[in-house]
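Sequence in, structure out. First:
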Amino acid sequence: MSCAGHQPLHSVDESDDIHIVVNGELYYEPTLRAQLEKEYSFQSTSDSEMVIPLYKRYGSGFVDYLRGEFSLVVYDGKTQTLIAARDRFGVKPLHYGIFDGKLLIATQCKGVVGLMDRKQDLAWDVHGLAQGGGHYGNRSLFKGIRRVPQGNMTVYRQGQAEPLEFKPYYQAKYPANKGGHDDRSADQLTIEARNLLLEAVRIRLDSADVPVGILLSGGVDSSTVAGIASHLARQRLEKTGGKAPPLPTCFTIAFPNDSELDESSIAARTAEHLGLPLEKVVVSEQNLADEFEESCWKGEALMWDLQHVAKKALARHISSRGFKVVLNGDGGDEVFGGYPFFAADRLLEDDRQRAKHLLNASDEDFKILKQEYYEKAAWYGAETVGDQRHLSKYAQALSLPASFCNLAVSTHDEWLKDEVRRLNDPFQAMHESFDGKEVEEMATYHPVRRGMLAWNRTILPNAVIAAVSDGAEMAHGVESRPPLLDHVLAEFASTLPVDLLVHLDGRKAPVEKWLFRQAAAPYLTQEVYERRKYAFAAPFKWKIGGPLHQKLCSLINRKNLLHLGFVDCDRAEDILRRSFDEQDQLLFRKTLWLAQIVSMGMQFGVRTWTPSELDVV
């Protein structure tokens, strides 16, 4: 990239007075650039510069023509208008706050804090903490700092009296589950999905002018990306006579002495099958302890286990090897229905859109399947139990299935003081992420789609991506690109009957990501193709006195807890003790949650919370 591509970028014609900052990567077909070259003289080959002529041509509608992972700001000096926008799935962060009458915008909270005149006033948002630590809405951990919602933009004019307002330019839409069989051929849909997968990987490879790595686990998603990347790279090598970039290098995490959670052996077999080099990074307990606090600072998002810390350790290695771009498998579960709670939700209601030739689960089969699999679904230590009656009014208003609520939505706040815990309703925060029309439409969707929409709107960008993906990898300057979150691919998947996502065949166990598996089959080993969903996770059983126990004890102590102001110290210390004594996963999650808050509070310099702030939203 030339120096002309350095940001901020400015319009060629100074009289246009257009200035932009883009974080992320945008993908365009050459034909679009060729069209724009007729009306704009590009200064560089930067993908970001395309925003300027698109804005000149379409005004605020330019976002509809963007494809990729981005957060951006455009300033039009002529009209004194500022536009801020975030990509459709929230892969790239963007935060804002209004302090002392000034609108502050930055990618992360620390950027907003850095612009504040009175940093000593930084306070906790205890409502956000009590409602799931910012996972389920657009609150951050800090009062007055919020996320720009995914797929949203704002147009703000200098001096306007109206408050800042964000409006969606993109909202996922699903068909109502009300009958009318979708008789599109499964074979044809498989071919269409495969072509879109190829395109999504290709554009992310083609736009990279540096060697590309692949984050590879033992799962079907990352293995699909690796398989397609290998296929495309070999095609390029053949066409160029060996002058194309080398084959991608795969990177995988290994955990010592924990065979249950270590997928590196499966990743190794996949890489060998594909003929790709693989580098295995063993992440020890000492590595996790050493990386813990910097992970909190860099990622700014709470996570329910140590996977984000492990991913940061992996990113450190990748960066040391000179790689700046990697492809990952994020999005396959979200777009094609891969999580255990989606499989459970599939059993709550038949798919009234499923093709007639797939109607092969009788009412009796359905009943038996529900008894056999629904009640046995589990996720990070949580289980599917109960029914809708115990849910909040906000969960009921969103028509969220109990299985999704019990498995996907969790809080880790037993250590909060009672007056703060009473604020706890993560579904309220989730409900605020949807407008009235969306809430009405959700009620018509199949339960799988309801949970999918809620997860993708909240937990995906606010936890999975913020902590485990972009937050961990960008900590070391590694740009992670998710082909499976390509919005063109996602829009195709949104039209599919639910039974092609989670497929039922007689009394067999539900098969998650069924159509995705068919589309990806040519690029997978038989082992991975047949493997069921296992969440990438870090170990949670650690010895008392070990590096992690020492690290967590150094953070969760009475002095630090009293400084926070909203913690019941006795409960917190008891949870810390029991999480190691009992080797319990859920208790360990609560301990990690609190330790991350303590660490971030210390590093950000957040002042002590007092009960007088309780009613201040």
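Second:
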Amino acid sequence: MNKLHEILLSLVLCLPPAAGGQSTAASNAPYPPSKFITKLTWSPDIVKMEGCMSGDNWPVAWVSDSLQITAFCDGRGFSKQAPDLSLGFARVVGDPPGFSAENFESDADTPMGGGSSGIKASDMLAVDGILYMFVRNYKPPGSDDFTNSRLACSTDLGASWTWTDWHFSETFGCPAFVQFGMNYQRARDDYIYIASQANDSAYGYSPDIVLARARKDRVMARNRYDFFAGLDDNGKPLWSPDISKRKPIFTDPKGTQRIAITHNAPLGRYILATSHQTGGKATHTAALGIFEAPEPWGPWSTLYYDDHWSVEDGKDCRTYHHRFPPKWISPDGKTMWLLYSGLDCGLYTFCVKKAVLETAPSQADVTGTFSIVAVDPQTGVCGAAVASKYPAVGKIVPYARAGVGAFCTQHWHNPPWGEIALDMLAKGELPEQVLAELLRDDDQRDKRQLAIIDMSGRAANRNPANADPSGTWWGAASGKYYACQGNTLVGQDVIFAMARAYEHTEGSLADRLMAALIAGDCAGGDHRGRLAAGIRVAKQGVDGYWLELYVDKSDDAVTDLAKKYAALDHEAKGAWRGGKLPWRGRPGLASHWHLASGKEQGQDALAAPAKPNHRLKPNSK
């Protein structure tokens, strides 16, 4: 670094800063400390973008590798000559601390309204080249009510906007898009998700956060919105078109305000930022809460919770609209930049602060598992099933997408790879190419066990070359339209039993997946125990998973999953007698279940040698 650069950088870094600090999961936090992200450390430095004259809120949309679009409120943005605007726009280039921005004109530029009497952008999102923006403080014609929000879209990067003919008049007073990658890459599905504090005004606090969704090609149509309405018995989200049936995804008795949710793709976690109250009445406080969850609806855990996050010289500095832009998340997910603004301490500008995360020890990522991926080209159905000693394994190992194929990541599993692998498969890459690309720059490539299959039945496996010493046996076998794989197993009979059961079972693809899972379990399964199991099946024409069943924690997970499956009335099920009531129970290792007929047979029924088309992979132990 040359001397001039050092001098310029010292001017950008505001010192003395608000106090930095490590993770604080206070006793009054609404959720328990995260077991996955064990530490959050704030940089002591606040970085303010040079050239910013004034403004706040700063929603930001990631358009391309080098460009983000932001909006500023009640200020001049990045121009000395610009008038004060209630809503204005700017282009942001680069990454902190070496970033910059410049204003641009838009037909949505709004003269200074001041606080709640002028519209403000609450959030922005880029999806396939289209910008979406929610504004708050919207006053419908002929009304004096500013507690409404309205949506607009732009096809020319914000120069002009098209507005919806509807608005939210209840609950969604300060909408925030759940943020994914550039141009909405790596999104969890084809929906756009919108969260908000559960009140009408952006200037109050609500104990609850609510969630809505609409397909990304229908987000401008109000009649296409569904609202989160709770979870079913399997932990699957329920959605209702009736806003009155909404349920909270998050609750803090101390309140939430101007929230933001960002998907940290490398870590496979959703990160929520929100202000909260600290006692007494105040529009803004120095408080901040950071939380994480595996899904936008939870379950949430606390990363950081402090009533005095922003402090200078022992005095609170009021801050608000905190968000983690996905562009400023490091490739390993462990460094993020928080964007925010404030009313005190010179913070009424474009401010960012670096947060460094630490995750639980790597051993937590070791998923001893046996699983199967399979497709049925004739029906267009695909799916995967899994069992393990690892908790909730059905939600982090198997992935399937209608018309694309199925994928499993296990033994040092990496959940974000699920959607990434299926994206590459959907673009026409061969299964072998997908695995090669995933592993190319992976420091843990020798620890991974992966399986992938496309709708043509082309399958590829990757076994760990350097598995943990605790693993008794690992390996894989593949046949016509399926592949089985496992690690930390009692022996190779587990994989062969799964393959034989899949081939011999008469029924639907879901039937055959369940039969294979039971067969692997009966053959001994994971030598450490039977804690969790799951099955996911996808079908063309059905959003998300057509069928998904989970047992997250049990003394005999495959048995419990089989009971759930047998009791289920679902069109994914076929003629297999073993998947129907009355379920006769797990027969144990001495007497295996004959999966094709549903009758108990001797031990040879599933432990017989595999057919020649089963290929046992060489790296087995």
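Remark: The longest helix spans residues 509-522.
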